[in-house]
Automatic annotation (TrEMBL):
Family as reported in the entry's similarity comment: Belongs to the 4-toluene sulfonate uptake permease (TSUP) (TC 2.A.102) family.
Membrane-spanning residues: 12-32, 44-62, 74-93, 99-116, 128-148, 178-196, 202-219, 231-249
Membrane association type: Multi-pass membrane protein
Ranges in a coiled coil: none
Keywords tagged on the record: Cell membrane, Membrane, Transmembrane, Transmembrane helix
Main location: membrane
GO cellular component: plasma membrane
Location relative to the cell: Cell membrane; Membrane
Protein name: Probable membrane transporter protein
Length: 250
């Protein structure tokens, strides 16, 4: 009973945070491999299944709000598809203990980047470089982030969204594109990790997780404009940093 309550609560809360801010999905692998004691492969399979749901639902709501550049998102995601496949293959080679370390290091660096990054409004000018204008750079960024995310379980938005802002994309559009992109990272990653698991044992857990994750994402993405995103992101960043330091110190 405790196991199922943690699965449902974690997916509901993390889904809401993903919908609100575009980040926090990287906390799911920590829950699965930490309190729930699951293996890295099972945890990543469940997490990437959730990222597909959150990416699809979240990007629909961001698109309705006019905060999703679909052509740019497609170009970025083409690179991410190839990168995600590579990430899964690398996970097969690298020992599980090393993958856990990579996961927590990515979480630590992501938390620090969120904490230090200053959001810029989409209207701010003076940008000398906007990545959406450069196809090659967009594909390369998608490939690299797709590989890192699928290998570590970091999701997608937590890495992609800050990078897009730095590279000239407005904050809300960056969240929408990052959520859209996470679908294309999640599909090959989820399939790859599911092939290494007992699908029969994992499906009931996945079904419960996806229902509650979806509810959280819908709520979060519909209420994103009502929340002080800067304050919420800072809270997530501090929590992520503390969790990562604790797990790395064990």
């Amino acid at each position: 009973m405790v196991f199922w309550m943690i699965v449902m609560a974690a997916n509901l809360v993390v889904g809401a945070f993903v919908g609100l801010t575009g980040v926090a999905g990287f906390l799911l692998p920590i829950v699965y491999t930490g309190p729930l004691g699951m293996g890295v492969t099972e945890g990543l399979a469940l997490s990437f299944a959730a990222f597909i749901v959150s990416g699809a639902l979240g990007s629909v709501n961001y698109n309705k709000a006019g905060n999703l550049d679909i052509p740019f998102g497609i170009r970025l995601s083409l690179g991410s598809l190839a990168g995600a496949v590579l990430g899964v293959k690398l996970n097969l080679i690298i020992p599980e203990s090393t993958v856990k370390v990579i996961l927590y290091v990515v979480v630590l660096l992501s938390g620090i980047s969120i904490l230090l990054r200053k959001d810029k409004s989409q209207e701010e000018g003076g940008r000398a470089y906007v990545i959406s204008d450069h196809l090659a750079a967009t594909l390369i960024l998608g490939f690299i982030t797709g590989a890192v995310c699928s290998l570590s379980g970091a999701g997608g938005p937590v890495l992609v969204m800050p990078l897009l802002v730095v590279l000239g994309i407005g904050i809300r559009t960056a969240v929408g594109v990052a959520l859209f992109n996470s679908v294309f990272i999640g599909i090959p990653a989820c399939i790859g990790y599911m092939m290494q698991c007992s699908v029969k044992d994992l499906l009931p857990v996945m079904a419960a997780a996806l229902v509650f994750h979806g509810i959280g994402v819908v709520y979060g993405s519909r209420n994103a404009v009502k929340i002080n995103q800067i304050l919420l992101k800072k809270g997530i960043a501090v929590f992520s940093i503390l969790i990562a330091i604790w797990k790395l110190a064990l």
